[in-house]
Amino acid sequence: MSKKGDDIWKNVDKINSELFTLTYGSIVAQLCRDFNHNYHEVNNQLDQMGYNIGIRLIEEFLSRTGAQRCQSFKETVEVITKLGFRVFLNIQPAVENWSSDGRSCSIVLPEPNPLNEFVEIPPTKDLWYCQILCGILRGALQMIQLDVDVNFVKDTLKGDDKTEIRLKLNKILKDEVPAGED
Amino acid sequence: MSNDNIILPSAASLSTLSIADNPKSGFGYNPSLGPLSNTITPESSNILLNRKTLSLTPTSGNSIYDKNVNNKKINEINLSSLSFLFCEAVNWTHRNSKGIQDLETRLNGLGYQVGQRFLELIKLREGVKSSKREIKIIDILRFIHGTFWKSIFGKTANELEKSQDASNEYMIIDNVPLVSKFISIPKDYGNLNCSAFMAGIIEGALDSSSFHANVTAHSAPIDGVPLRTVFLIKFDEQLVIRESLRFN
Amino acid sequence: MKLYSIYILNKAGGLIYQNNLDPSLNRLTANDYLVLAGTLHGVHAIAAKLTPTIVGKDSTSTTSGTDPTANNALLLSTGKVQNSNTNKTGLGSIETDLFNLYVFQSLTGIKFILITSPNPILQKQHEQASETFRHLYVLYSDYVMKDPFYSLDMPIKSQLFDLKVGELAALV
């Protein structure tokens, strides 16, 4: 088991990323059948599933890294991209397009990533294949008292030039910050 | 559907065709006319030239079909990511299922699609030179238990056994099935084993290799190995007959 | 250090797990454990109010490590595990002649409480408690968070978690 000061990635139990890719694909395909190819509902369901994952996954992230409360949203996004995506998906997305108030920005995923590899979707405007990621981020951030809107704005699977997630910080849920932190 | 979508006459209408029948669009083979029916007339060439088309030419060299899956470096990913995804998949499947049996069937179905695809990948990578097609039951089982298991689950399975009671039943045993590593089944869920997903993967791979089988996962804990799971592989009876015809 | 007992509290102060690792301990009634958990939750919060702000700013408190910003900067630059305890100003420990009690709190508000044998060398005791908390938090995220049959904020019934906690206690 990991000790303080151990290399985080070295201590991670690793598996073949293709098993993950195919499993995710199988789930999305099943959802499309379950919802009769109503992609709007598929997106919602993926987002909900992501949220359910996010509110649990945050504990794993905190316990394995020892991250503490960030002092700004910029720092939060830096920890998510440099550490969160690295630890869970072994990728490091870029951060772009900060708004002037520092409350919204874009995360650009590298291609291919473990979710969309081997994937081609029928020409449809509606399905956001990796929507689960938005739910995960939203759920995980909510558990550390950040109310954030997360959604896709671009997807290479739809022919866009990049895969881009937009984050917008609504508010910090100060009342819910646990007592004793500072 | 308009008339010119019909390119070939159906088998039923073939017998009623006569020499006078020229398809309106100018396409389709009329056996009564012979090769003449394919002659291009000004009318048919006009249709050909003005037909709406869907471009199939790849627009960039970057499509997924252009990528080489053979010499691609296989990435590693955190087991936790799969565990969380699987946890939510079980949760969602559970909400939609009518009972324990149904839940296992659905998990098996999710795995099935993974097995079919993973088999294709692994066989493609073995390449023509080093690979051989498994044609005996025992060979395909050794392949699944060894190479396949190692490649997809990161280690070979523990035991491979043959049933002494039924000639078409085999067992692969895994002491710690990858997807169930963190899952405790509550007492009121009886025999539920979430490794039904892995059973589905095996079933998908076996079916795709033309070894039709039913695969189910059963908990068989022993001291110190609480998650030990038996994957029971029940081959189609026909396979046993095929095997005895071929090799005896 | 010997582990007597482990408590886990959800963020509302509800007891979701309790395990007496020392079989010689007298068992309380289920209700008493709930009351005890609620009391500790309250005392922890009151302690946070009582702590003079100057101490909070100053990182001299024994349970807290470095300040969050430095902690995260170190985390990002080295990629090495840091201390995930965010309990800075709340009740951190109670040390008596008969037992010691330690409180860990995660950023999400989950509390882990250890009751251990007393140890005259307090510094070593704190290090051990800190190590135990780290392992316990990892076990929680593995065997509780990744179990589809666990509902968030509800009592933990996972047999695997029990098993692993037992193994951890034997190691301490």
From TrEMBL, chain A:
Lineage: superkingdom: Eukaryota
Subcellular location: Endoplasmic reticulum; Golgi apparatus, cis-Golgi network
GO BP: any one term: macroautophagy
Keywords: Endoplasmic reticulum, ER-Golgi transport, Golgi apparatus, Transport
CDD domains in UniProt: TRAPPC3_bet3 (cd14942)
Main location: endoplasmic reticulum
GO cellular component: endoplasmic reticulum; Golgi apparatus; TRAPP complex
Similarity field: Belongs to the TRAPP small subunits family. BET3 subfamily.
Name recorded for this polypeptide: Trafficking protein particle complex subunit BET3
From TrEMBL, chain B:
Transport keyword on record: yes
Compartmental location: Endoplasmic reticulum; Golgi apparatus, cis-Golgi network
Pfam family, any one: TRAPP
Alphabetized UniProt keyword annotations: Endoplasmic reticulum, ER-Golgi transport, Golgi apparatus, Transport
Keyword Endoplasmic reticulum: yes
MF terms in GO: guanyl-nucleotide exchange factor activity
GO process annotations (BP): endoplasmic reticulum to Golgi vesicle-mediated transport
Database matches in Gene3D superfamilies: Trafficking protein particle complex subunit 3
One GO CC term on file: TRAPPI protein complex
Subunit structure comment from the entry: Part of the multisubunit TRAPP (transport protein particle) complex.
Function: Plays a key role in the late stages of endoplasmic reticulum to Golgi traffic.
The family this protein is said to belong to: Belongs to the TRAPP small subunits family. BET3 subfamily.
Protein name in UniProt: Trafficking protein particle complex subunit
TrEMBL record, chain C:
UniProt keyword Transport, yes or no: yes
InterPro entries in UniProt: Longin-like_dom_sf, TRAPPC
GO biological process terms on file: chromosome organization; endoplasmic reticulum to Golgi vesicle-mediated transport
Pfam families per record: Sybindin (PF04099)
Domain of life: Eukaryota
Coiled coil residues, start to end: none
GO cellular component, one term: endoplasmic reticulum
Record-given protein name: Trafficking protein particle complex subunit
Principal subcellular localisation of the protein: endoplasmic reticulum
GO molecular function, one term: guanyl-nucleotide exchange factor activity
Family membership noted in the UniProt record: Belongs to the TRAPP small subunits family. TRAPPC4 subfamily.
UniProt subcellular location: Endoplasmic reticulum; Golgi apparatus, cis-Golgi network; Golgi apparatus
Keyword terms, alphabetized: Endoplasmic reticulum, ER-Golgi transport, Golgi apparatus, Transport
Subunit description: Part of the multisubunit transport protein particle (TRAPP) complex.
Organism: Suhomyces tanzawaensis NRRL Y-17324
UniProt keyword Transport, yes or no: yes
Residue ranges of the TM segments: none
